[in-house]
Amino acid sequence: MKNKLDDFTIDEENIDRIDIFLTKRYKEYSRSYFQELIEKEHVLLNGRPLKKREVPAIGDQINICFKNRPGPDLTPQSIPLDIIYEDAHIIAVNKPAFMVVHPAPGNWSNTFVNALLNHCTLPNTSEFRPGIVHRLDKETSGILLAAKSELAHQKLCEQFAQRVIQKEYVAIAIGKVPSIRIDMPIKRCPTHRKKMIISQENEGKEAITDMELLGYNGSLSKVRLFPKTGRTHQLRVHLKQLGNPILGDKLYGKNSINERFGAMRHYLHAKKISFIHPITQKKLELEAPLPKDMEEIFLCGF
Q1: What are the pLDDT digits (tens) for 73-87?
Q2: I need a surface site. Which of 102, 132, 186, 218 has the fewest CB within 10 A?
Q3: pTM for the structure as a whole
Q4: What residues have CB less than 8 Å from 240, skipping those under 6 apart?
Q5: What values do phi and psi take at 51, rounded to 5?
Q6: Measuring CA to CA, which residue among 175, 241, 260 is closest to residue 213?
Q7: Which residues are catalytic?
Q8: CA-based nearest residue to 92, from 48, 132, 36, 125
Q9: Residue 8 half-sphere exposure, CB side, CA atoms within 13 Å?
Q10: What is the pLDDT of residues 118-129, one digit of tens each?
Q11: Contacts of residue 170, Cβ cutoff 8 Å, sequence gap at least 6
């Protein structure tokens, strides 16, 4: 595929720096993508390379060469899987922290999908996410379900949509977390495309989380979380709103405290999942033990 070229003349006043301006103009691309193009001199201002912080003016000519990025690699890869449950229709794995669920920009290989393709046959339910019925953030560990047939995939997706599937997480959070229900809608941040925020104007989507304090060591809480809805970053955003962000959370947390504890990731673990088997109709309750790094970091807080 050839690289796409585009050029235009700035015709408005008081615009943002160039990387922000281009992200708003070309909504299908991320800000980091344009920053990469600018750094590699694929964006020109009046025929010369520019810096990402530069602010163009009326009459300036912008030339862009949209470089093609590598596509997803759905090649099976021999990656170990900690299998909790498996039969002919579904598989449940204890995903380690830092494993990405499916190929995406920045992580085209070495994903959960690549590992699954090496282990079993997956249904053709999605071009890049075959068999995937839900996701966990890259740094989140714990139970991850996948379907091994199209029917199982359909039935599991229906259960997620109908909120029949019950999930339980454990987090290590900063400060003392109250045992409380949080009912606060969430929306995407208008200025930070990877961040979610509480919607004060009730414009966001419904988001409900039940929280139960399991232990407090004087500086950190071990807390059990029961999400009643499945919004992006829901647990992380709700804990931040309480003033008790998850330890190690670089997006919503407190960097000074993360550094003090040497937190290597956000300490969130998908511990349990309960659902009806999509084929046998029997109820299954699966559990993944809390990883060692979370146990150790909580003990370090004493």
Answers
A1: 688 999 999 999 999
A2: 218
A3: 0.77
A4: 249, 252, 253
A5: -95, 155
A6: 175
A7: 137
A8: 132
A9: 10
A10: 999 999 877 678
A11: 214, 222, 223, 224, 225, 268, 269, 271, 290, 294
